[in-house]
Design goal:
By secondary structure, the protein is mainly alpha-helical. The chain has five helices and two strands. It is elongated, with a radius of gyration of 19 Å. The mean pLDDT is about 90.
């Protein structure tokens, strides 16, 4: 997903005007403009932060004391004999959440790019609501699955 984001930025950066619509209101119409470098900077930061957070979480779990970790049945799942397996399970599940989040951000970035390309209508359109709804549905399903994975001690 990060490679797709990098290709997206590299491909579209030269095609955009120097000043782009950087924020859109609820109607999908632009309401503020920024230099295109400032437009891409937050996307780059979120991609980097997501990669570090989601890929680094198993290592954090191994290093953190259980008192700082919030999860169902943590006494069982974070017991010394299960902590490494738990870290890998959490890491795998967080990797999927990270993939979904980055896909969502890539999609939002693409809609914004499309709205800023020469000859466009300059609006996000209803696709933004669909993308947001799909991501929220995934996040809810992911949360339920995460809870169900750790709901009981075996």
């Amino acid at each position: 997903m990060l490679a797709i984001a990098a290709v997206q930025i590299a491909y579209y950066y030269p095609q955009l005007p120097n000043v782009v619509a950087g924020h859109f209101g609820l109607s999908g119409a632009p309401d503020s403009w920024v230099p295109k470098g400032a437009f891409f900077a937050p996307f780059f930061f979120v991609y980097l932060l997501s990669a570090v957070l989601y890929l680094g979480m198993p290592h954090l779990i191994m290093a953190m004391p259980p008192s700082l970790i919030n999860m169902p049945n943590k006494a069982y799942w974070l017991a010394p004999e299960r902590k490494e397996v738990t870290a890998h399970i959490v890491g795998d599940q967080l990797a999927w959440l990270g993939v979904a989040l980055i896909a969502f951000i890539i999609s939002v970035c693409q809609l914004t790019i499309n709205a800023n390309l020469p000859g466009s209508r300059g609006e996000l359109g209803p696709a933004m609501w669909w993308i947001t709804g799909i991501f929220l549905a995934f996040a809810i399903a992911w949360t339920i699955r995460f809870y169900l994975t750790f709901r009981t001690s075996h």
